[in-house]
Design brief:
212 residues; mainly alpha; Tetracycline Repressor, domain 2; 0% strand
């Protein structure tokens, strides 16, 4: 990509088009098959135009991930922030995830595909690349509430959740369950994400709630 201090409206629009087409293609055929040439073909432009805006696939993947997380944050952050306690925040986290998956199926599937198949030019998986970025730049404020570990830690501190829990393990379990739903959505376009999130809330809120 060119090293210019700012982009024109037309350049921003073209970048959005490329990212949107890349998301569609990855969701349809998988990340390994979504070459820059095929993305250009999907967008109806020359491959050189893709390379003009994104010097390599790493740059494009970074923009795709930021785009998907920004869309997810727009749905999830207000709901989680408005919840008055940890129990309601975790409920909002699961519900908002379900809303995002239901309304942004292709984005969710594309991110799932990238998470499973992507390797950066220096061999890093997406989670490793993300951790490297966080260590260097910190977590963007708009993304901080997307991590359920902080909600679990809050619930333990307030006595809402069991004190013997490992917050990181609970986070991984919840995220793994949600990833499983995306995998099911990929195989079954009629997958009932609402029924899934209702089940997920019953399972986790009962399992981690403080003894009464």
């Amino acid at each position: 990509m060119r090293s210019t201090p700012s982009r024109t409206f037309t350049e921003d629009a073209r970048r959005r088009q490329i990212v949107d087409c890349a998301i569609e293609l990855i969701a349809d055929v998988g990340y390994p098959q979504a070459s820059q040439a095929k993305i250009a073909e999907r967008a109806g432009i020359a491959k050189s135009v893709v390379l003009y805006h994104f010097a390599n696939k790493d740059d494009l993947v970074t923009e795709i991930v930021n785009t998907v997380f920004t869309k997810a944050a727009a749905i999830m952050v207000p709901a989680i922030a408005a919840a008055p306690n940890a129990t309601e925040k975790l409920t909002a986290y699961i519900d908002a995830n379900g809303q995002f998956l239901a309304t942004h199926r292709r984005e969710a599937v594309a991110l799932f595909e990238i998470s499973n198949s992507y390797r950066s030019s220096d061999g890093l998986r997406l989670d490793q690349q993300a951790q490297k970025t966080v260590e260097a730049q910190g977590i963007p404020p708009e993304f901080a509430l997307l991590d359920p570990q902080a909600i679990v830690e809050l619930g333990i501190s307030t006595g809402e959740f069991r004190a013997d829990l490992d917050p990181a393990m609970v986070r991984n379990a919840i995220r793994g369950s949600l990833d499983g739903a995306v995998s099911d959505m990929f195989r079954n376009p009629d997958y009932d994400i609402h029924a899934f999130t209702e089940t997920l809330k019953v399972l986790y809120l009962n399992a981690i709630g403080a003894p009464r």
